[in-house]
Amino acid sequence: FNHRANCHLFDKSVLEGTPSTRAIYLAHLTCEADSILNSLPAWCEKNPEVVIGWNPGKTQFKEGLEKYKSVLPCISTLILNVEEAEQFTGLKAERVKFEMYDEAQFGEMVSPYESHLPKVICDVRPLVEKFKSLGVKEVVITDGGRGAQIFSEDQHLYVPSKAADRKDTLGAGDAFSIGFISGKLQGKDLKTQATWAANNSASVIQHYGAQAGQLKLKDMS
């Protein structure tokens, strides 16, 4: 599921040699590794049932969103934080006082746990509409301690951060992604996927480092 190598060794053959799998999660790709993205549309045509999660990075932001117009329709779930989404789209999310929270603007709140409610929340709808106009099926926008917003074809959810004793935020975003994709692979509904994401992220920030605190499947709920 995870393979690291010198970026110059990464090309489309890595994707072509992928063993049978139910999901692929692509993080920041640098150098020639970007060719993996270029070969993704043809690969997805042959593997239409595979879940493709993508968390692009600064190399992709520098190239610009238009370069990936053929790639975006292949993405099952696009996951970025607010600042990354702003860089990729060239748009700015409006910051709003949380006391002005409106479900129509920020989504249905999903919080089956004690929540950490922020002072400010971002209206990311224009950014998400830009991604969706280019064919992305589902968009997750995280915002650290402010929580996350999830946009599917017919749902908009707001997931506040789970109250936790924070020791180290390293890996919190990746932990959120792991919980979310795990819930999807387990056939859970969107609200449960969101809860798993929040639970896993909250567990990781209570430990030092990005690996400690990752939840087992039995502990996700």
Rounded to the nearest angstrom, the distance between the terminal CA atoms is: 23 Å
Q: For the CA atoms, what is the radius of gyration?
A: 17 Å
> How many strand segments?
11
Biggest sheet, in brief?
Answer: 7 strands, mixed
How many H/I helical runs?
Answer: 9
Strand content: 15-25%
- Identify low-pLDDT runs: none
Coarse shape: globular
Proportion of residues in helical segments: 25-40%
Oligomer: single chain
Sequence of secondary-structure elements = HEHHEHEHEHEEEHEEEEHH
Mean pLDDT: 90
Secondary structure elements and their pairing?
Elements: H1 12-16, E1 23-26, H2 35-38, H3 40-46, E2 51-54, H4 58-63, E3 77-81, H5 82-89, E4 94-97, H6 103-106, E5 108-109, E6 115-116, E7 120-123, H7 125-133, E8 139-142, E9 148-151, E10 156-159, E11 161-162, H8 172-185, H9 190-204
Parallel strand pairs: 1-2, 2-3, 3-8, 5-10
Antiparallel strand pairs: 4-7, 6-11, 8-9, 9-10
Could you write a compact summary of the structure shown?
This protein has 221 residues and is α/β, with parallel strands linked by helices. It is built from 9 helices and 11 strands. Helix content is 33%, strand content 18%.
